[in-house]
Amino acid sequence: MYKADSHIHSNFSGDSVERLENIAERAIELGMDEITITDHLDLDYADGIKIFELNVPKYIETLKNLKETYKDRIKIRIGVELGLQPQLVRKYDEIFNCEDIDFIIGSFHCIKGMNVAGRKFFEKYSKDEAHRMYFEEILETIKLFPRISVCGHLDFINRYGKAFHNDYKEINFELHKEIIDQIFIKLIKKNIGIELNTSGLRYGLKDFHPCRRNLERYKELGGKIITMGSDAHKASDIMKDFDKAREELKEIGFEKFCTFEKRKAIYRDLD
Predict the structure, then answer these.
(1) 263 to 68, 139, 147, 212: CA distances (angstroms)
(2) Least crowded by CB within 10 Å, which of 135, 231, 255, 258?
(3) How does 165-181 read in b/e, with b if 16+ C-beta sit within 10 Å?
(4) How far apart are the C-alpha atoms of 13 and 39, rounded to whole Å?
(5) Mean pLDDT value across the chain
(6) How would DSSP label each residue in 183-197?
(7) Exposed, middle or buried, 205 (CB in 10 Å: 0-12/13-18/19+)?
(8) DSSP one-letter string for 85-135
């Protein structure tokens, strides 16, 4: 069984203090074959927040050195998690044109210039309106970024809105079914995958991102490219709940998951 975690953050991300060496050592301790470091690059973040900006040359150089240090013990891939917004198409050319980057997660942390984890977004809109806007922006924005590898933690908006909605963890998927289908169809057509992000369980949710309903629908529509990521911001969360994730994927009908090298998907057996 190939053990790989394709979504890990280090202290290059503004919301992590974990050292890269600790990440590598923990992965080796877990008997892993491969890890992908995917630190944040989130330009034009809401409210002028700058902590998710990334010194790309320094990041690449540091990860190259890490790969060299651990080359006989574990595979280390260079990835990045981009915060996608329509106005950032040209600003991310440095990333898309960098041959050293193996894997690009496209995520949606800000909608209409507002942080989906902040108060303003849910203060301004009802829960269903906020969710609709979130999915609509994903659909419109992925059209502008055809070179991402996967769409990150789809439906993670149900982590937020607690201060305003007692049922914030629940998304009315029947209400948003058509637009979610359009997202999946667009991704599949562009050969962009999705990730199964296990962090939902660590946020007190009952499911992963995407939830099982959406994983099943992605499979029904012909989706094949799917990575597995813990979204770990500390070494102890690497590969967290992956046994459950593997079982869920197999129950749905997936036989393989993907890792990425040089932006190319490599299919790995789930067993």
Answers:
(1) 20, 22, 9, 26
(2) 255
(3) eeebbebeeeebeebbe
(4) 5
(5) 95
(6) HHHHHHHTT-EEEEE
(7) middle
(8) -GGGTGGGHHHHT-TT--EEEEE--EETTEETTSHHHHHHS-HHHHHHHHH
Mean pLDDT within 188-207 = 95
**In which order are the strands placed within the sheet that holds 4-8?**
4-8, 34-41, 75-83, 103-107, 150-151, 193-197, 226-229
Predicted model pTM? 0.96
- DSSP string of 19-85? -HHHHHHHHHHTT-SEEEEEEEE-TT-GGG--TT---HHHHHHHHHHHHHHTTTT-EEEEEEEEE--
**Which tens digit of pLDDT belongs to each residue from 50-98?**
889 999 999 999 999 999 999 999 999 999 999 999 999 999 998 999 9
- CA separation for the pair 232, 239 (Å, rounded): 8
Beta bridge partners of residue 8, listed in sequence order: 37, 232
SS3 156: helix
Q: What are the C-alpha distances in Å from 195 to residues 17, 82, 148, 239, 260?
A: 24, 14, 12, 13, 12
- Cα 201 to its chain centre, rounded Å, is 15
Q: Read out DSSP for 189-258?
A: HTT-EEEEETHHHHTT-SS-BS-HHHHHHHHHTT---EEEE--BSSGGGTTTTHHHHHHHHHHHT--EEE
Strands 150-151 and 193-197: parallel
